[in-house]
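Dear support,

I submitted the protein below through the web form. The confirmation email said the job was done, but the results page showed an empty box. After a refresh the structure appeared. I'm attaching both so you can tell me whether what I see now is the final result or a partial one.
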Amino acid sequence: MTNYLHYYLALEQAKKSYAEGGIPIGAVLVKGDDIIGKGHNQRVQQLNPILHGEMDCLQNAGRLQDYSDTILYTTLSPCMMCSGTIVQFKIKKVIIGENVNFEGNIPFLKEQGIEVELLNDKETIKLMANFIKEKPELWNEDISETKE
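What the results page shows now:
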């Protein structure tokens, strides 16, 4: 069952990144009812090309011997790098805020046996759409899209 409070904590992380001038993507890692990590995209803030929201969240959670009983809440459908990390760590369930602005890798996650729940939250869709409209160059850099 989805805990929407946990999802909205991920959305708060996305808003925090946006307020810092970064890319509005947030994530929260939960084990049972306990939040063990949260983070947001910090590529801009930390000048780190791999510090996506999910990666920052996992880094902040620290080392765990077993991630298989955790749930990852993320505001945007994960890119291939973050999807690969989810698979590598054997996270069994991912709850995604939206995939309207970025399709991400939901089919890949499902093929790997990961349970995926897509919320298509209107507030999250609007936040991401506004960011992409305001800073298309930064968004294209984040998803490695270049104009030819």
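Response: this is the final, complete result; the empty box was a page-load delay. The two ends are 44 Å apart (CA to CA).
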